[in-house]
Amino acid sequence: LRSFIAKVENIVEKEYTPATWTAFAAALETGNKVLANENAMQEEVDNAYTNLVKAYLNLRLVPNKDKLEDLINQTKALVAANYTADTWKNLSDALVLAENVMSNENATSEEVTNAETVLTKAVEGLVVNNTPVTPSTPAVDNTVDSAVKTPVNSGDTTASVKTGDESLTGLFGGITLLSIAGAVLLKRKEN
């Protein structure tokens, strides 16, 4: 029991699923208590050892969910109106399954892989909706288009677009006047 505890006591909790870690931690604590008890019977030591070994063997690593998370994000970016209702329903069901697995802390690697497979097949099974969606209002403003096509003549006196150039000129002119006034006042004070 002592040597097995020494081997497993430094295992990192965050690498294992919470459900399997809880059982392991309880068995490890019991094993340490039995080990610390000088009056422990051999049967208690054997039971603690057996329970600790079982709990250790039942530990499950937290599966990597990065690929599943990427698939979920890509799927959420799809637009339902672009696909047929039946294939979109299949995708929606697969997405719900994948999100449930993603949020389950105790999900096994098999469940993660299965959710990835089901979601991938649902995305691949999407059928493009051939019914065009007509907007209720035109997407292009014709007045802008006609203004662009109108040529500018050399004799045209139409005011140009305000770009803010005049405001900078006024600002620099004001700063220059203030500088000159300050210099004149400074010169008068010195005299």
Terminal-residue CA separation: 101 Å
- Mean pLDDT level: 82
Compressed to H and E, one letter per element, the order equals HHHHHHHH
What is the 3D shape? flat
The CATH architecture name of the domain at 66-124 reads: Up-down Bundle
Q: Taking Cα atoms only, what radius of gyration do you get, to the nearest Å?
A: 37 Å
Protein name: FIVAR domain-containing protein
Pfam family, one: FIVAR
Structure description:
The chain is mostly helical and 191 residues long. Among the domains are: 2-57, no CATH class; 66-124, AF1782-like (Substrate Binding Domain Of Dnak, Chain:A, Domain 2, Up-down Bundle), CATH 1.20.1270.90. 64% of the residues lie in helices and 0% in strands. It contains eight helices and no strands. The chain has helices spanning 2-8, 18-36, 42-57, 66-76, 85-103, 109-124, 142-149, 165-190. Helix 4 (66-76) runs antiparallel to helix 5, helix 4 packs parallel to helix 6 (109-124) and helix 5 packs antiparallel against helix 6. The protein is flat, with a radius of gyration of 37 Å. It starts with a helix and ends with a helix. The model has no long low-confidence stretch (mean pLDDT 82).
Itemize the secondary structure elements and their pairings.
Layout: H1 2-8, H2 18-36, H3 42-57, H4 66-76, H5 85-103, H6 109-124, H7 142-149, H8 165-190
Helix pairs in contact: 2-3, 4-5, 4-6, 5-6
Compact summary:
By secondary structure, the protein is mainly α. The chain has helices at 2-8, 18-36, 42-57, 66-76, 85-103, 109-124, 142-149, 165-190.
List keywords for this structure.
191 residues, mainly alpha, Substrate Binding Domain Of Dnak, Chain:A, Domain 2, FIVAR domain-containing protein
